[in-house]
Design goal:
The protein is α/β, with parallel strands linked by helices. The chain has seven helices and six strands.
Length: about 170
């Protein structure tokens, strides 16, 4: 069965781009007899607000959209994501990336072989990783598609799976 999803973050009110995306995916699901899933991206507790989630539902209903119940919330599945990350890590397919998005974007202009090299810089050296861990720096677990594909299969992009922020000191 064909399924679509609309996945807003409840960090503010919906805008025209959200409405267009929701209408497009809802229409595609309805046209094929498929499913339209509302998934709330509520994993940023500092920015997500319940009043915005309520407003999202109200706005979508005002547009005449209906969706599969219950609403799927990303925060309800953190243990599932952690289990997958652990499995991939045990299989040697992940690496820690301490680079911020800004650092990666800034490096694009400096890459001698082009933007793709800068956009997927790969793992830090073991010494650099140990130093950054000792400093308590935040990191993202990134999937090494090179490792997942196996030797001799060519280099490919390195998508981010999960961002780990340092815990605030108490």
């Amino acid at each position: 069965m064909f399924a679509t999803r609309f996945a807003p973050s409840p960090t503010g009110r919906l805008h025209k781009g959200h409405a267009f995306s929701a209408l497009t995916t809802w229409t595609a699901a309805k046209a094929t007899g498929g499913r339209f899933i509302l998934r709330i991206e509520d994993i940023d507790p500092t920015r997500c607000k319940s009043e915005f989630e309520t407003a999202i539902s109200e706005d979508l209903a005002w547009l005449g959209l209906d969706w599969e119940m219950p609403v799927r919330r990303q925060s309800d599945h953190l243990a599932d994501y952690a289990a997958v990350i652990e499995d991939l890590n045990q299989r040697g397919l992940l690496y820690r990336c301490f680079r911020t998005r800004k650092e990666i974007l800034d490096a694009i202009g400096d890459a001698p072989h082009g933007a793709m090299e800068a956009a997927r810089p790969g793992p830090h050296s073991p010494q650099e990783e140990a130093r950054l861990l000792d400093q308590g720096r935040a990191f993202a677990w990134r999937l090494s598609l090179d490792r997942a594909r196996g030797p001799g299969r060519g280099s490919v992009e390195q998508p981010q799976l999960h961002r780990r922020r340092p815990r605030p000191e108490r």
